[in-house]
Amino acid sequence: MKYIILLFIITLGAHAQTTKTLSGKVMDAATKEPIPFANIQIKGTKIGAQANFDGFFSLKTTQASDSMIVSMVGYLPQSQFIGSQSSQNFIFLLTSASVKLNEVIVTAYADPGKALWKKVVARKPYNNFDKFNNYQYEIYTKSEIDLKNVKTHKLRKGTMKELVYSTYQNLDSTNRSIMPVYFYETLSTFYHSKKPPVQIQNITARKTIGLETDKLIRQFEKYNEKINIYDNWNILYSNNFVSPISDVGAHYYKYEVIDTTMTGPSHRYFRMKFTPKRKNENTFVGEMWIEDDSYAVQKFDMTISKDVNMNLIKSVHFIQDFITVSADTTIAWMPKKMKSEVDIESGPELIGLPFTSRNKQRENLIFLNTTTYDKVKINEELRDTVLFKSRYSKADSAYLNKTEQFWQNARLDSLNKHEMAIYQAVNSLKENKRFNQRVRLITFLASGYWDFSHKTLRIGPYSSFISRNLTEGWRTRFGIWTLEDFNKKINLNGYIAYGFGDKRLKGGAGIKYLHSISPWVKTEFYAHKDYDMVTVNDDELDKDNMFNFAFRKPIPSYQVFVEELKLLHQRQLTENWTMKAAVAYKSFDPVFAFVYQKKDRDENPQLIDKLHQLYTTEASIDFRYAHNERTTILNFDKIHLSTPFPVLHFRYTLGFKTTAKTFFNYHKADIGIMQTFKLPPKGNLYYNFSIGKTFGTLPYILLHVPRGNESYFLSSYAFNTMNPYEFADDKYVSLLTRYSLGGLIFDKIPLLNKLDWRERITANMYWGDMSAANKTYNILNQIRTGTRRVPFVEAGVGIENIFHVFTVDAVWRLTHNDNPAISRFGIFTGLKLKF
Fold first, then answer.
1. Which of 74, 149, 519, 537 is 20–30 Å from 698 (CA)?
2. 596: exposed, middle or buried (C-beta count within 10 Å: 0-12, 13-18, 19+)?
3. pLDDT for residue 1
4. Stated pTM of the model
């Protein structure tokens, strides 16, 4: 008998030591979406694990237990029986809970959350991957736009919405409240270097759904933001957000240690919850998992605080996990996978009205981005060719023409059933003529340009189809461009315009030749004759639009009719430096009173032959420095989008005689710097400083004429209370500034903080002077020759983000108020769509 008992004990011990592999997936019971970072615990033991980014988990145990428990904040815990098999698989479907889980305090400190935060902050320099001199990795991003909370009972038969919804649901009916709107994939390589300072993201491939809406990708990308949680501040959607592990985090957050998870006999993770101390501050609410050996952030799951002034955005949710990387003996934690979900406002809130609907499940757009990082390389020197790559965009579509086999091999994360169904649905919808027409119409309204179905010609923009001004009366303009499918290297463009008041035909024609994409090299030639309507700034509309006339000041017209022939060459010298060289022959014919006198060889003005139309020939070279600037391509032109760093430029212009109508030799030199940067906690500051000098005795139109504003439509590049051609100088200093507080004051005022308004301050200054020779030469013209000792100064206060679109500024002119043709005060408006 004793041998039987002994045998039983031995058998029982052997069974207890058997290693079991327990794996599975944790999902939301309602949506079947994975629940990342859920806690898995073997009942009655200290053995546990966490689900990964996609809800999967796997752990091994030798300890006997009858069940496994899965828990997650916001869900009811669930347990399942553990069988006797050595390998077992589980599916946990968690139900959303309306009550909070009990919190577990795992330390004896008076404030354990703050104590843990201090340790994390102290270890940031060691754990932050930005400490490496050089690193690079591949990035694979899946971006999706969905219509959420679709009301299926309200879908009308035969509408475009019903057509798209039914086509998709026939392929994937897992979630009947979701209707995909757009989907694309991007594969890129990211390069970071401290010396030289380089930060480049080169797109190597992009797969789209192949519709007209593909041209709107640049607008979609603004919803795909990246976070480095180790940075004290992160710029997200044009706003500054304080990181929960910022050096000043304790001023903004409360911290709680919720529980710990044992992943080994002596290895554990802390789960720390963080919540804002105050409302209406740019903060997050969520949780992070801290590794106890290094105090590194292993994962985080957080949302932007609901009271943050985010304009069109209702909520933003971020999930990210990290992996360890090493170089020699140095270890850091780098991103492995990140997911963001951006919910857009709907109903009255979409236009900034503080009315909350009783229906919490209104239809609204959501932007989903899933980014996977892989193939990390540490401290490898960057090749010179990398430095010339375009930062985000390319001019041709070579990187779009990848085979399906390429994508199957290149994807760092596989497509799920839902994503594959989107491609299948679109392929089916492309055969529907009505669907294609609607998509093209939507794209035209959003972009301003209409592309013909053969994709070789483009017309637009429609903002200039009809306009009005004092000189021409009603005016119409029609522009046309060839596209890449016409020729990938050559672009032909032109426009015609007609004024019904002056009964004069205007227009222009040009040709652009793209030598190279990387580095960017382009040559173009164009000829045109028209009034000076076109702006040189990428973020401004041309003057021939209805807004400009509707808000025009009651002042005379200051337009100039320009005829010009110009040869222009642009070249990217390095990642940050670009060069532009040009030769132009042009004439100026002002509509306002202007005269000048011909000069002889001794540079002495003649007292006869007063002239009005002015001719000149100029050669110029312009160098521009912009570090880490985002750009895109439109009509074969590189459009400058944004950079948080200063943008420097130097321009030299040589004027010389070429024909019997050109009488002047001169030189000009201008230097400038401009920047828009964030000022924590919420604001941003814009400044534009320039200084220059003209050498030569010239008609004042060829000197420096500060840009005045002829309308009550506010401009960031003009002096808004100054009239056009009010001043002219041969040496000048100019400074334009605007400080946007981002709601710093309004967000603290009850009721007013519901409107999402944001306050701002404007201050502009101009000083100029004119030499005695130029004053004498221009004595016949009514022009102010210099500001003398007192500079021109204007200042104002304003509100932006009214109804999420409009701005209103009150601007006062503080000096040089003796001019009877000016107004000392003005209310200026504008349109500005900003987060």
1. 537
2. buried
3. 44
4. 0.81
